[in-house]
Amino acid sequence: MEKFSKVKAALAAVEADVEKFYNAGNAAAGTRVRKAMQDLKVLAQEIRAEVTEKKNSGK
After folding, report:
1. Alpha-carbon span 32 to 30, nearest angstrom
2. pLDDT digits (tens, 9 = 90+) for 4-27
């Protein structure tokens, strides 16, 4: 659950940069969005691994 909370916090943190990129055309904000999405991808993969491990340990 801790990592899922980190995903939610990261998504909330990048929201302003997403708006700046798409609405104002701010290229620097786009770079920050890309980095945040990469970090989210890593967190999501870690969560997937934990879920798989927990699911398989119950068998």
Report:
1. 5
2. 999 999 999 999 999 999 999 999
- Looking up tokens 């991808």 gives 41
d(CA 45, CA 14): 19
3 and 47 Cβ atoms separated by less than 8 Å: yes
Distance CA 6, CA 56 (A): 24
Exposure of 27 in the CB half-sphere (CA atoms within 13 A) = 0
**What is the number of helices (H) and of strands (E) in the chain?**
2, 0
pTM of the model: 0.83
Total residue length of the chain: 59
